[in-house]
Amino acid sequence: MVDRNKILSDLSKFAVDAMSTFSGVKEEIETIVSLRVNKIIKKMNLVKKDEFDVLKKMVQKMMMENEKSKKTYSRSVKSKKKTVKKKKTIKKKSKT
Description:
mainly alpha
């Protein structure tokens, strides 16, 4: 009976040691894979997500400003056309 408990105790210690070893191996593999993936990404010259999001917001803001300036420009052109038409009609009336 004592030998049986001793064997079970030894097996238990072996299992615990194996689990801690596998845990360490898992962390090492994750680190190696992460480093290799980062190296490949740098070689591909990809943009990071946070940099992309900042650039996307800048482009959206510029597009909105561009639309506003187009609207402002078209309003000013329309008002200039109206004043030019008024001047022409006034000149025509004064000639007749």
